[in-house]
Design brief:
Helices cover about 50% and strands about 15% of the residues. With about 425 residues, it is an alpha/beta fold. The protein has three domains: about 110 residues, Helicase, Ruva Protein, domain 3, CATH 1.10.8; about 180 residues, P-loop containing nucleotide triphosphate hydrolases (Rossmann fold); about 110 residues, Winged helix-like DNA-binding domain superfamily/Winged helix DNA-binding domain (Arc Repressor Mutant, subunit A, Orthogonal Bundle).
Length: about 425
């Protein structure tokens, strides 16, 4: 049938106006599991925060008397605040379902819905979608909401994400109305909880003491992730989103080390997952069945500025040789190069280019200088024979660095090395 793009036909090569679409096996099995909106069944290294929330809102599940508790979740971008709040809601929903009790989890992003009316309208859509909300004031809607909660005995958690946008747009009076929503009602009949999420406490300091006190009584802190914590997160997410064996462990190591707060990154799990997704896309584009460290470095160049040619030109010849030695080795698909291995590669590269190799101490100084300038990264590792320095690349793919440095060396030294590398009789 004309226009049929069913699975059977999609498996064949298709040509549209000169473009060839050839189906190849993707490294992915479920890209959606890398989405910012996706909430996995487990959140590594956020167990403590989940337990704290369970402790704060235990009354939602246990007992019959109502209560109104608030919590403030604080942490920089990508520290798991939103995911933790949603997973917590899922846990509560499952627990209350077992007990045949009604529960509503209402999530509102205040970046999009910045007024009290929009928040109250969203609550009405979940609690009583058949009731009209237009033509009512925010205060009237709130009263209707509390009356519904009291009448139906529905346990409810409201999450206001990016709450600082709400406060900035409407002022603290609207926040005060939310915090005091149950005033004038029998609180013992209403089980309500509110979670406020923000990147920092800065907005709190501008609030009146009464509002500040109510908002900051229960604070849950989310620290940026370390490289080790990010590695656990990435390993979990790879199982959900990629085919088995499609992502090399070294590729995950490069992501974790680039983003981990202990390695100079910002500890942003969202960035780590974006890099993983982009690296997978690059691997698919290259037609490979696996994701390599170089795919990650190339993916990083989309989110961070790449090294400029002008910066490379400013390096000494020996520093270029060191970079070239590192790039050649890392191009093989490894995340890091040992210092001892670099010395061997560097000496061999010097011989190819007709240069005299520097001694160990001078080589070490060049490595540290290249690190200071941002060309390479280093970390210390403990091996069977003792401690050693591991050398990696931050955001530029090794194959690209090799190509650019080789060009500069040919310009600077001449084509001698190229001639030397040609086989006899070429």
């Amino acid at each position: 049938m004309a226009g049929d793009v069913s699975g059977a036909k999609w498996c064949h090569s298709m040509s549209i106006e000169g473009f060839n679409f050839v189906a190849s096996k993707s490294v992915f099995k479920d890209e959606g599991a890398l989405s910012f909106e996706y909430v996995p069944p487990n959140l590594p290294h956020r167990e403590a925060q989940l337990k704290t929330l369970i402790n704060f809102f235990r009354y939602i599940v246990e007992g019959e008397r109502g209560f109104y508790q608030k919590a403030l979740l604080i942490g920089s971008v990508g520290t798991g605040k939103t995911a933790t709040s949603k997973l917590f809601g899922r846990i509560l929903e499952g627990e209350l379902k077992k007990r045949n009790k009604d529960f509503k989890f209402i999530y509102v992003n205040c970046y999009r819905e910045r007024t009290l009316f929009l928040i109250a309208q969203r609550m009405m859509e979940v609690l009583a979608p058949s009731l009209p909300s237009r033509g009512l004031s925010p205060q009237e809607l709130l009263k209707m909401i509390v009356s519904l909660l009291e009448e139906k005995r529905v346990s409810t958690i409201l999450v206001l994400d990016e709450v600082h946008y709400f406060v900035k747009a409407t002022g603290q009076e609207a926040l005060y109305n939310l915090l005091r929503a149950l005033e004038g009602y029998d609180e013992s009949k209403v089980k309500l909880g509110m979670m406020f999420i923000s990147r920092s406490k800065d907005f709190v300091y501008e609030l009146d003491d009464v509002v500040k006190s109510s908002l900051t009584r229960n604070v849950v802190e989310f620290e940026p992730y370390t490289s080790q914590q990010l590695m656990a997160i990435l390993q979990d997410r790879v199982k959900l989103s990629f085919r088995e064996g499609a992502v090399l462990p070294e590729a995950l190591e490069v992501i974790a080390d680039n983003v981990g707060v202990d390695r100079g990154g910002n500890g942003d799990a969202r960035l780590a997952l974006e890099l993983l997704w982009r690296a997978g896309k690059i691997a698919d584009a290259r037609g490979r069945g696996h994701v390599t460290p170089d795919d990650v470095r190339e993916a990083s160049s989309f989110t961070h500025p790449a090294i400029r040619i002008e910066d490379l030109k400013g390096l000494l010849v020996d520093e270029k040789i060191v970079l070239l030695s590192i790039a050649k080795e890392l191009k093989r698909g490894v995340a890091y190069l040992k210092m001892g291995s670099l010395e061997d590669k560097y000496r061999g590269e010097c011989e190819l280019w007709g240069l005299k190799a520097k001694k160990h101490t001078q080589l070490w100084k060049m490595v540290k200088n290249l690190e200071k300038m941002g060309f390479i990264t280093t970390k210390t590792a403990t091996l069977e024979r003792g401690r050693t320095t591991l050398i990696g690349l931050p955001t530029i793919p090794a194959y690209l660095l090799e190509r650019e440095v080789s060009k500069l060396l040919v310009e600077e030294i001449g084509g001698k090395s190229v001639e030397r590398r040609k086989p006899a009789g070429f």
